[in-house]
C-alpha cells in the first residue's frame, strides 16, 4: 500500500502476506498459521444458526448506520431489509430487526420451512426505536455484533464483539491491499474527487468503488462503466472525498467464498458459491451446489484473508468475492466482512435441506408493491409443490416508512440446473414489479 493510500484508511495494523507474525488469537500462538489442509473443505459440524457462530450472550445488528449528511428517507428501506435478513437463521441469538421482518405470515412461512427462526427479535418501527432497542440490548448485558459500523455513542467498542473501526476498515474498498496477497489484487488506485474526472475517461472501461468505512453494502457503493457509455456518476461521489478506481475485468467465473470466524478465532470455510451478476455489475443472487470448482490457490488465499482479519479481532461471517478472468488471472474483487445475502441461504440449506447443497439451487429476491401476506398467499401453491424455500423478507407497512416495497428472499432448488433457473426466472418475472 502506498503512502497516499495509507492516509486514506483507518490506521489499523498492516498485515504481511507472508512471514510477519500476526497478533494471534486465544487458540493460535503469535506467528503460527492456523490454516491447514483440512480447513479447505467445509467443516463436518457446519454451523446452522448465528448462535453456533457467535455463541451465547451476543446480539446481532445488521443495519447500516444512517449517514449524518444524508436524508433519513434515503436508503431507509434497504437498511431495514438488511436488518431483518439474519432473523431466519438466528436461533437463540437476539437480533435487532425492523418490524417489517417479523410480519406474522412471514414468520409462519419461515418456521413451516423448518428454519431456526430467531427466538428473540428486538423489533423497531422508527429510527428512535432502533436506537432504543440497541440500548436495551446493551442494558441486558449483551455484547453487540454490529455487522455495519454504527456510532460508538450508540454501541461503544467495549460492548462490541468487533469495533466499528475494524468493521469499517475491513470493508473499505481502499484497504483491500492490506489483506490480499499482491498476486490476487486487481489494479486499483485511490483518487480524490478532484482527480476523478482524469482517472475515469469515458473512452475506457473502469469500476468505481466507494472508499469509505461506512460499509453500507447492498450494491450502493459500486459503479461499473463500459468504454464509450455516458458517465453518470453514482450518488456516493457527492458524499465522499475519495474513491477507488479499479480496472475493468473480463470475468469468466465469479465466486463468493463464504467463511466464518467463531469465538475461537479460527477462520473456517462454510461453502463456495457462484455469483449471478447483472449487466451493471450488481449482485442478483447465488448458485449453490454443482458449481465450477474454485482453484486451490484462490481458496487458500481466501482462508488466509479471513484468518488475517481474525488475527486483528474480527468475529462473525464474511463473504469474499473473487473471480477468474478469461485470460486465466485469479483476482480478489471485494471483501465483505459481514452477514451477506450469500451466507444466509447457505445456513438455511445446511439446516433444512443439506442435500440441496449437492444439487442445483439458486437464491433470488422478489420486490413488489403488494403486502408480504398477499405475496406469500400467491406463492403458496409453489411452496407446497416443493423445491422452494422462503429465507426472509420485509414489509415496510409495519414501520413508519411510507414506501410500499415488499421484499421476499427465496431459494429455488431441484435436480436439473436448467429447470431450477427456469423456475427462478419465472418467479422473478411474475412477482418483481
Automatic annotation (TrEMBL):
**Which branch of life, at top level?**
Bacteria
Spans annotated as Disordered: 1-34
Name the UniProt record assigns to this protein = ATP-grasp domain-containing protein
Report biased composition (Low complexity) as residue ranges.
Answer: 20-34
Amino acid at each position: 500500500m502506498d503512502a497516499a493510500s495509507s492516509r486514506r484508511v483507518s490506521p489499523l495494523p498492516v498485515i504481511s502476506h507472508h512471514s510477519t507474525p500476526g497478533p494471534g488469537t486465544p487458540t493460535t500462538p503469535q506467528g503460527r498459521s492456523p490454516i491447514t489442509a483440512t480447513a479447505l473443505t467445509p467443516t463436518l459440524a457446519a454451523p446452522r444458526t448465528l448462535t453456533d457462530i457467535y455463541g451465547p450472550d451476543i446480539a446481532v445488528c445488521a443495519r447500516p448506520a444512517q449517514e449524518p449528511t444524508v436524508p433519513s428517507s434515503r436508503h431507509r428501506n434497504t437498511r431495514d431489509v438488511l436488518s431483518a435478513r439474519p432473523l431466519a437463521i438466528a436461533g437463540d441469538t437476539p437480533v435487532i430487526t425492523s418490524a417489517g421482518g417479523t410480519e406474522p405470515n412471514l414468520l409462519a412461512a419461515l418456521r413451516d420451512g423448518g428454519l431456526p427462526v430467531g427466538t428473540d427479535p428486538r423489533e423497531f418501527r422508527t429510527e428512535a426505536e432502533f436506537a432504543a432497542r440497541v440500548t436495551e440490548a446493551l442494558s441486558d448485558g449483551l455484547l453487540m455484533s454490529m455487522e455495519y459500523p454504527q456510532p460508538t455513542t450508540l454501541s461503544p467498542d467495549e460492548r462490541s464483539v468487533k469495533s466499528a473501526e475494524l468493521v469499517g476498515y475491513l470493508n473499505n474498498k481502499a484497504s483491500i491491499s492490506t489483506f490480499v496477497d499482491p498476486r490476487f489484487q486487481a489494479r486499483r488506485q485511490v483518487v480524490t474527487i478532484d482527480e476523478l474526472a482524469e482517472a475515469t475517461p469515458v473512452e475506457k472501461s473502469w469500476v468505481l468503488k466507494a472508499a469509505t468505512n461506512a460499509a453500507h453494502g447492498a450494491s450502493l457503493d459500486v459503479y461499473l462503466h463500459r468504454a464509450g457509455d455516458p458517465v453518470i456518476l453514482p450518488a456516493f461521489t457527492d458524499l465522499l472525498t475519495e474513491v477507488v478506481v479499479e480496472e475493468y475485468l473480463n470475468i469468466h467465473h465469479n465466486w463468493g467464498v463464504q467463511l466464518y470466524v467463531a469465538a475461537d478465532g479460527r477462520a473456517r470455510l462454510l461453502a463456495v458459491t457462484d455469483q449471478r451478476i447483472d449487466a451493471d455489475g450488481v449482485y442478483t443472487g447465488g448458485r449453490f451446489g454443482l458449481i465450477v470448482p474454485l482453484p486451490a490457490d484462490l481458496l487458500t488465499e481466501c482462508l488466509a484473508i479471513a484468518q488475517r482479519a481474525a488475527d486483528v479481532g474480527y468475529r462473525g461471517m464474511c463473504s469474499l468475492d473473487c473471480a477468474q478472468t478469461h485470460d486465466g488471472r485469479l483476482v480478489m474483487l471485494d471483501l465483505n466482512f459481514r452477514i451477506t445475502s450469500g451466507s444466509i441461504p447457505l445456513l438455511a440449506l445446511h439446516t433444512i435441506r443439506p442435500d440441496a447443497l449437492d444439487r442445483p439451487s439458486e437464491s433470488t429476491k422478489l420486490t413488489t408493491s403488494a403486502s408480504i401476506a398477499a405475496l406469500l398467499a400467491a406463492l403458496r401453491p409453489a411452496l407446497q409443490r416443493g423445491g422452494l424455500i422462503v429465507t426472509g423478507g420485509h414489509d415496510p407497512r409495519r414501520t413508519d416508512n411510507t414506501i410500499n416495497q415488499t421484499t421476499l428472499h427465496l431459494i429455488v432448488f431441484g435436480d436439473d440446473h436448467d429447470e431450477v433457473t427456469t423456475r427462478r426466472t419465472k418467479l422473478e418475472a411474475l412477482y418483481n414489479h
